[in-house]
Amino acid sequence: xxxxxxxxxxxxxxxxxxxxxxxxxxxxxxxxxxxxxxxxxxxxxxxxxxxxxxxxxxxxxxxxxxxxxxxxxxxxxxxxxxxxxxxxxxxxxxxxxxxxxxxxxxxxxxxxxxxxxxxxxxxxxxxxxxxxxxxxxxxxxxxxxxxxxxxxxxxxxxxxxxxxxxxxxxxxxxxxxxxxxxxxxxxxxxxxxxxxxxxxxxxxxxxxxxxxxxxxxxxxxxxxxxxxxxxxxxxxxxxxxxxxxxxxxxxxxxxxxxxxxxxxxxxxxxxxxxxxxxxxxxxxxxxxxxxxxxxxxxxxxxxxxxxxxxxxxxxxxxxxxxxxxxxxxxxxxxxxxxxxxxxxxxxxxxxxxxxxxxxxxxxxxxxxxxxxxxxxxxxxxxxxxxxxxxxxxxxxxxxxxxxxxxxxxxxxxxxxxxxxxxxxxxxxxxxxxxxxxxxxxxxxxxxxxxxxxxxxxxxxxxxxxxxxxxxxxxxxxxxxxxxxxxxxxxxxxxxxxxxxxxxxxxxxxxxxxxxxxxxxxxxxxxxxxxxxxxxxxxxxxxxxxxxxxxxxxxxxxxxxxxxxxxxxxxxxxxxxxxxxxxxxxxxxxxxxxxxxxxxxxxxxxxxxxxxxxxxxxxxxxxxxxxxxxxxxxxxxxxxxxxxxxxxxxxxxxxxxxxxxxxxxxxxxxxxxxxxxxxxxxxx
Amino acid sequence: xxxxxxxxxxxxxxxxxxxxxxxxxxxxxxxxxxxxxxxxxxxxxxxxxxxxxxxxxxxxxxxxxxxxxxxxxxxxxxxxxxxxxxxxxxxxxxxxxxxxxxxxxxxxxxxxxxxxxxxxxxxxxxxxxxxxxxxxxxxxxxxxxxxxxxxxxxxxxxxxxxxxxxxxxxxxxxxxxxxxxxxxxxxxxxxxxxxxxxxxxxxxxxxxxxxxxxxxxxxxxxxxxxxxxxxxxxxxxxxxxxxxxxxxxxxxxxxxxxxxxxxxxxxxxxxxxxxxxxxxxxxxxxxxxxxxxxxxxxxxxxxxxxxxxxxxxxxxxxxxxxxxxxxxxxxxxxxxxxxxxxxxxxxxxxxxxxxxxxxxxxxxxxxxxxxxxxxxxxxxxxxxxxxxxxxxxxxxxxxxxxxxxxxxxxxxxxxxxxxxxxxxxxxxxxxxxxxxxxxxxxxxxxxxxxxxxxxxxxxxxxxxxxxxxxxxxxxxxxxxxxxxxxxxxxxxxxxxxxxxxxxxxxxxxxxxxxxxxxxxxxxxxxxxxxxxxxxxxxxxxxxxxxxxxxxxxxxxxxxxxxxxxxxxxxxxxxxxxxxxxxxxxxxxxxxxxxxxxxxxxxxxxxxxxxxxxxxxxxxxxxxxxxxxxxxxxxxxxxxxxxxxxxxxxxxxxxxxxxxxxxxxxxxxxxxxxxxxxxxxxxx
Lengths: 683, 683
Known about the structure:
2 copies of one chain form a homodimer.
Chain A: E1 7-11, E2 16-18, H1 25-32, E3 50-54, E4 56-58, E5 63-65, H2 75-83, E6 91-92, E7 102-105, E8 115-116, E9 126-127, E10 132-138, H3 150-162, E11 168-169, H4 171-183, E12 187-193, E13 202-208, E14 216-222, E15 226-233, E16 239-246, H5 256-265, H6 269-292, E17 299-306, H7 308-315, E18 335-338, E19 351-354, H8 364-373, E20 382-386, E21 391-396, E22 401-406, E23 427-433, E24 440-444, H9 456-459, E25 467-468, H10 470-482, H11 495-498, E26 503-506, E27 509-516, E28 524-527, H12 529-553, E29 560-564, H13 573-579, E30 590-594, H14 596-606, H15 608-620, E31 622-623, H16 630-640, H17 650-653
Parallel strand pairs in A: 1-7, 11-13, 14-17, 17-19, 20-29, 22-31, 23-25, 29-30
Antiparallel strand pairs in A: 1-2, 3-6, 3-7, 4-5, 8-9, 10-12, 12-13, 14-15, 15-16, 18-19, 20-21, 21-22, 23-24, 26-27, 27-28
Helix pairs in contact in A: 5-6, 8-14, 8-15, 10-13, 12-16, 14-15
């Protein structure tokens, strides 16, 4: 020690400064702007400010730290240790006082702006910066000589202890405040919404004394088929429960267009669907709160992502205009509301945030994908495809980002495929065809065994082999093409042309027998040429959307492809590329982002700055309307070929052999692929 | 005319400038910042911008105005004239174009910030500046090449045409916007709330095309006994209907303390009372909207004033703490809410504003009185007394303003008086006693005749003479004192002492017979010495509150006295002063403000700047808590005397003779006046 005040060095930030002997570590941290959490404001109650002192020589920092560098373990720490236990080596930052030079580590969980772990390093970081935080304060008692409301004295305490602006109080707070202050002996814990463009900063809830629990938020992905919610702890960022329900709107129509039609055909139909989705939402909230064993009233914030039709119906807007050109949205900007305005049963003061929509067919879900995948931050040119019944496509890098949607239709979900089905136990999800024997083998959901493995029949005895799901049909078609059973134009060859008894004449075209389960009381699973046509149209729509964006960007290749959506998570990149669904690209550069829309919702929930970011990004995204782009039609026709009539797919051809077969014997043998303009949009 | 552009001079503002030939008058007005109204933005639709050109020589302005100074009457004006008629000499400012030098008068009704006429010149001006205004705009149609929401294009139009900031939309607007835009052929009229400290500026409603109606606001005075509402046109400021209902909380207790007790004694009692008052409020809204023949959904704003207990119960706050020292308010600041948060059935987006409370016993009603009477703007030292069962007292001038409340009790409303009653037909409201004969005469509510006028009995045959109302009892007691029937200590003399047969022994003290209606089947109306005691206590409480403020101000006289409250409107200043209710003051300086609290509510409704003003004023008001001021007790004892034991009342004595009588024959003959500390507060 020397004459100067002791030196305090914080890691990992590296911030350092000299403080008088006896300065609490929390005070030093605050003065240096070190990110050290605290709810109780240094009163030794909340234990959020835990730190770990390091002792010994630190040549890097040029200090030696004595064992006595911090004050002795005190009664407050002992009480906390007895009650809850403290990780060995940890101290409470508000209790431990600086005695001599010291190096102090702030563990991740003690950082207010802690980083939430994401599995995928290439995507956006999640740094905690939630809308709502907890603050503990001691409040002055009322004084007849200087009359002021209890609220005004609370606001004053929050201002002086926490540097918060002059807060307003929710009406529910007015009701609970006086009993809480008296029960807490003039101390309370407040949940404070820090404000946004719509709402001024506001006290949402008060608890008497120190509130030892947490507060929660919901990240909700409102899909046409399912509604999925992640319940997140707004202090730690942790997902404490996840749950899903079917969208009850399904009874009004399976796909989006049929729901738009329902609202057109039925007076009050839109309102009926609005009520249905909100009721479903409330049921889901009960479910997810029950799963986490928390009170639903502790949910103070919620972020929603959805496609434009769902967005409008959820908000109570008739989606009529979205069903016809020019596909005008009622509003495209992000929306902040109170949950009660949407009849949502959360905390009475809870807030709701809906991400902005990008365009009439590119919704808040696509914005959430953009938020999760951050193309605008990518040096590589990134193509993000959210594969669903309507594909949303983003292409961009730090220079610019383009977006469009393309009407893929429901074929990728197994619909309109003769043996197609939703992904469920018993559905074929992986397929291989031996190029020599042309015989297939496959796996079904619910079993790890291949269909030619011993014990397969026993393994699938419960589920049966019931059909082919979306990822299965993609592998199936690609494997048929690789095995020379299918030509580039999408014709299945005859038994004679292919030399395979699995091919058989089925009306005017040929089909391929994948599995005959009739002996076991199950279905015969075949792929018809009509099925191939459906997949051709779906993948052509997807590819031509991506290709159109590449045109607009002025490139003919992309650096990286991200497949988003639950379906995207199951697609085999190789098979998708054989099909020509996605542009030619090194296979290791094709990755799945899983439910990127849901992740985007979670990011916006946990970090309000991310909301401003995505609002700006969406403003800057250049929207392309495929319906009015002449080249889309041309790309579509080319992309109907497998993999493509004109694109070379050079990288793909280094990996696989694409047999040069042609089963056309003159004269079209089926109706051919529809043009994209004849297809209506679906969700 | 000379080479320069024509000179345009506006009156009454005197603003002037030169504009090119052909400039519309509205454009010239806008460029000069002349206050000329317009809803349609100069499209010749709304007719709000009517102006009157003047012709001939104007030496004062140094111009000569030709008959041709404005362009000819045009087709738009002709269409308006045919449809609705235009006052002769008027032109539409957006159609009439400047041709040569011209003097243009902007009539009051064409001014956006028009002044609303108030009868009393000494009180605050009301200048229109409402929270919510109408704006007509033409909106760009959607374009697939540049997708944006209909709302965003509307917001853009409001920004570019009206210089409005980027507005948000209420959720109801999202629902109605798309059909309205299409029905109005891409024109709509918007009701826009211009924002406040709580809410960002926001579109509240849209109508297709030009909306030709008005929008409305409510100024509500929520009293313990009655709820009164004024429905105001938010464009003209006019009161279009006024109505009142009994406060349904009366079933839980007549006065405030009994309601506070009800909430203490009954679990859920406060919630019950909250529901009751809100239901009563909604019934009143139906009534007032029906009276004005308008749709209740056109009511977009509402301002409420009330005492602290009503304030808390209306907001859903248990008034428990207001029933006991230190009388802590849950909140004292002004409150902005959505009407739906208080379960009020107005427009779904309607806003609510509650004025701030001054202290635990000096509520938003007293703040409203301060807003109406503006003591902080008065050069004279002004005493404002809101006479009710709890008197709120303000004393101040431009230097400072003090406030207190004083528990007068219900005697001034005729309660706790043996023959007392509410002001209603049949109640005695004016009294005179002949100083020579000591015989009384009186008037009752519902008749102009005095009781000794011929035909009086016939005139009151329907109502009867049923009792004495508050203003009647004040005149009665003052007249008894002037006639020498009552001494300064408040004792009624015996028939022998007074020489009046109207005095008679009534138990241990004397009473005075005012009217014997028994022959007509009515009651005998007397004033007992107990009645005198009640009035003494009430007036002593009022006076001692005022006197305490004078002490604090460091004065022993005031320049002016304003009596507020419905009751205050009926009090005779002379009699009030004989009683010693109010400080000595020239009688012509004692005026009634009528329902100043209601007027204050109306001011806050029509001018949002006034809300900021009263918030500031209330912050600056110095609050005095009478209960803890030792001198209050001393003033109270002195003020129990009629008019006062120590104050000279010199001005009063120049107007009236106060007989020096003393009827005390040794030994107190009744219980004497209670001290103020024994009284509980009432409302």
